[in-house]
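User: For my dataset I need records formatted as: sequence, then structure tokens, nothing else. Please produce one.
Assistant:
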Amino acid sequence: GQVLVRLPPGFSLRRPVLAQAVGGVDGLLAVQDIVNGTLVVLDRILGSEVPSATQVTINVTGVVNRPSAGPTGPFHVQTRTRDARLIDHDLTAPGHTLLPGALRGLQVAPGSLVAGNVTLLTLSFSVSNPLPADGAVLVRLPEGSLFPPALVRVGGVLVRGLAAAIEGNETAEEAAPSAVALSGLDGLLLVTVLSPSVANISRYNASAAAM
């Protein structure tokens, strides 16, 4: 017989993909096919029939998690005969909640260390997962620090990545700040000040950047 496993959207399979029967099933499991990078078909080899109500446990290697945090959505699992006749299936196997990756080597340095000064803030880090073409960088200042309405500038160079300048309007309520990529990224950077201490830098009309 065969076991089919379909991964949730955003997941992928990286070769070599191997399967191992851990419990409830004997013999060997061979990866017969990988379809569209998200469906793996496992063939049973040299095994005996698995009785009904048997709890089966199988390990599959080479599964790459979706590169963003949050609920995964369900996994789809089927058993079928070698000639593709369906035996059992569950199209709503519970998913999981993925945690965000870590920003590596993060450094945040103000251009001035004098209290009350308006200053350039330099951000430098390397991302664990690719930054999508429509991705964003969220900057939250420490307690007591604010984005001034007169002039807001954020600059910096990420490892293989981003440099940006953000310029504000004299009255923050009249016009949102805008950003221009200085190096390393194509497209347009737009800034939204979400609160006096939080700004969101969004990418538009850009290609994906794996950092």
